[in-house]
Amino acid sequence: MQRSKSFALLVVLAAFVAGVAFGYTGDRLMSRGDHGRGGRPSRDQIAKELNLTPPQRAQFDSIMTSRRTQMRELFKPIRPQMDSLQKIAKAIGDSTHEQLKRVLNADQAKKLDDMRERGRKRETDSRARRDSSKDRPQPIP
Predict the structure, then answer these.
(1) pLDDT of 97-132, one tens digit each?
(2) What is d(CA 132, CA 136) in angstroms, rounded to the nearest whole number?
(3) Contact yes or no for 128/32 (Cβ under 8 A)
(4) What pTM was estimated for this model as a whole?
(5) How far is it, in rounded angstroms, from Cα 35 to Cα 93?
């Protein structure tokens, strides 16, 4: 009996980790932030570090805008599938969260809820920053 509970917990944790990994990867592929993602520098950071002249910066921005357009076109056919997978990943994450809470005591469950809420707030804040920066030069995806 204990072995089957351990196995079930392992499966739940594996599903949770897979969901987090999938969500993280999908977010990185689909993100449109105005700052560097995944530790990569933004256009502004690159331009500053390279000490680009205004004409160089104009060409740099033009090339990067072209690249961004090409990347958007590349992902356009699979965007609906990515959106669908994101919804499925959220459902798996919600289910996993509830399953994990059943293993925890009340204090641990509260902390887990708080951790999740902080993560969601960071994501909401990040999305708000991305949405407010549509007119600024875009980062390297």
Answers:
(1) 999 999 999 999 999 999 999 988 888 888 787 777
(2) 9
(3) no
(4) 0.46
(5) 27
